[in-house]
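FAQ: What does a ligand-bound record look like?

Like this one, built around zinc ion:
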Amino acid sequence: MNLLKIPCDCHLHTDNSFDSETPAALQVARARELGIPYIALTDHCDILEWSDANIARSNAQAMELNALYDDITVLRGIELGEPLQDMDETSRALGLCEYDFVLCSLHNIQGEEDFYYLHPDRSQAAELVRRYFEELLEMVKWNQFDSLAHLTYPLRYITERDGVPVDMTPYLPIIREILATLAANGKALEINTSGLRNPDGMLLPTGDYVELFRRLGGRYITLGSDAHTPEHLAVGMAEGIAAAKEAGFTAVTVFINRQPVEIPFA
Ligand SMILES: [Zn+2]
Ligand SMILES: [Zn+2]
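The answer part, i.e. the structure of the complex:
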């Protein structure tokens, strides 16, 4: 029995993403089954290879599904990947539809493949992670989004999957700058729970960074399971909420028409 009241899941993929075969209606059905009042469809819009047809379809389906039910709000989102790597396409993507929620992410740094495909050794990893945070800082300064997705994404593969240790100490100053910029701009930090599907998995980012964001003046956090299938929807939310509370947050935020709406934790 599910005793935890899950307020939202604002990072979900459907068959409008290249890496999911799940119809949007099945994600919505699963969220309703779990009694989740807010979800956002955030299909991939990786700017170097996005499909305007898929993004428009995702947006239209969010509206259609939202209109069908009284017990759930289905928000029109995108996961905008690597926006700085083609600014013309980014403008086109942001102008294509009206969105409730723009979740911004960095899966591959300029000129490299997605971290998913990379298997660096220890010294290569240090260099790649440095470039990741540098590009992330530029993205956060660009500021045309609502929430920053899965901070520390490279660790999902480098450390968690491949077991290559990464000393995070050298990156602390730039991580502070990223979080302080987000906070000053009134943007949200996502707590991404997808790592918790794996036995040794972790939150992205871990609670210490969530707490640092809070201490640097951060007000908004969003929660996302990054589910590509219905069975992964909301997985890890209890841990995500616990980390947010422990960091001193009293509410989670959803974005409606690109405006933050805070939902106090029960
Ligand atoms: Zn992502
Ligand atoms: Zn995602």
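Follow-up question: can I read anything off the structure? Yes, for example: The mean pLDDT is 96.
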